[in-house]
Write a structure and sequence with these properties.
This protein has about 270 residues and is of the alpha/beta class. It has an 8-stranded mixed beta sheet with strand order 3-2-1-4-5-6-7-8, with helices on both faces. It is elongated. The structure holds NADPH dihydro-nicotinamide-adenine-dinucleotide phosphate and (2S)-3,4-dihydro-2H-pyrrole-2-carboxylic acid. NADPH dihydro-nicotinamide-adenine-dinucleotide phosphate binds next to α2 and α4. Keywords: Amino-acid biosynthesis, Cytoplasm, NADP, Oxidoreductase, Proline biosynthesis. Its main location: cytoplasm. It catalyses: L-proline + NADP(+) = (S)-1-pyrroline-5-carboxylate + NADPH + 2 H(+); L-proline + NAD(+) = (S)-1-pyrroline-5-carboxylate + NADH + 2 H(+). Belongs to the pyrroline-5-carboxylate reductase family.
């Protein structure tokens, strides 16, 4: 990533909890100078304090970017600290679920370049995926946003803001679905006779190993599944149970996320 502009003008992060810190961790590991980052957060974590970033310090006059990473429910109150950047010269990148671009246009004023992004927490280990979409003014900053966000994983550009709800339900929330699968697999192992420790180790290594294989292989997920499934063997029978219910369950899960995202937008 070319950090020249960010190093020279600075990056402001409003709210740096789980998601903000995941991205910041990836950027710092990629070489971003901590002194160029000003974080506004009422209760900085031990991680933040250890980074050397400027915490709750005076704001730079014209930062290269303002990142909004507070919860949508407190966005309104928190924004007052940075709305003076509105008007055109400073792009605003928000990762908040729900809130539409027009919300920020109202808060920062017309002409403010706004980019909406939906990242996920694997950004902390540079394995995130972030979807981005901008308003008219933000279009010129999509390259900058992509450059920054690709330092912590993959980036996809959306055709329309309306697609952001589905993205949130798939990849924004998705890591939680996968972590829950580890929990569920562990629980099944315990119920069928393993110790919590061994079941947990098996489940965790299986999910992360399958993820690594998926990442490094050219084969489709369906083919990788087939590779495990011996004809008339154990997996084939096991999958009958899982595949009967999981697609519909996953769809309902994503629909629940979309519905909540919609509620948060109001
Ligand atoms: N977590 C995730 O996987 C993802 C989250 N997001 C989005 O990221 C945003 C943040 O989520 P997440 O990181 O999980 O939430 P967190 O609560 O972990 O982070 C929000 C941070 O903002 C701080 N904060 C609270 N009030 C203010 C304020 N007035 N000014 C500045 N900072 C403030 C909080 O401090 P305190 O804890 O003291 O209240 C906290 O450190 C949300 O909008 C969410 O939709 C998007 C994609 C994925
Ligand atoms: O749960 C949330 O609201 C946020 C958005 C996507 C992931 N976490």
């Amino acid at each position: 990533m070319d950090m020249t502009d960010i190093t020279a003008r600075g990056l402001v992060i409003l709210g740096c909890g789980k998601m903000g810190s995941a991205m910041l961790e990836g950027w710092l590991a990629g070489g971003l100078a901590p002194q160029s980052v000003t974080v506004l957060d009422p209760t900085p974590s031990d991680f933040l304090t250890s980074t050397g970033c400027r915490l709750n310090a005076a704001l730079p006059e014209r930062p290269a970017l303002v990142l909004l990473a507070v919860k949508p429910q407190i966005m309104q109150d928190a924004l007052a600290q940075v709305t003076h950047y509105g008007g055109g010269e400073v792009p605003v990148l928000t990762v908040a679920a729900g809130l539409p671009i027009r919300y920020y246009e109202r808060a920062f004023g017309a002409g403010t370049p706004v980019i909406r992004a939906m990242p996920n927490t694997p950004s902390a280990v540079k394995r995130g995926i972030t979807a981005i979409v901008g308003n008219e003014g933000g279009t010129g900053y999509l390259d900058l946003a992509e450059e920054l966000l690709s330092a912590v994983g993959q980036v996809v550009r959306l055709e329309s803001e309306a697609q952001m709800r589905t993205v949130t339900g798939i990849s924004g929330c998705g890591p939680a679905y996968v972590f829950h699968m580890v929990e569920a697999l562990t629980e099944a192992g315990v119920r069928e006779g393993l110790s919590e420790e061994v079941a947990g180790q098996l489940a965790r290594a299986t999910i992360s190993g399958a993820g690594a294989l998926l990442d490094s292989s050219d084969e489709s997920a369906a083919q990788l599944r087939t590779n495990v499934t011996s004809p008339n063997g154990v997996t084939e029978v096991a999958l009958r149970t899982l595949m009967e219910e999981l697609p519909d369950l996953m769809h309902r899960t994503v629909m629940a996320a979309i519905k909540r995202d919609e509620e948060l937008s109001k």
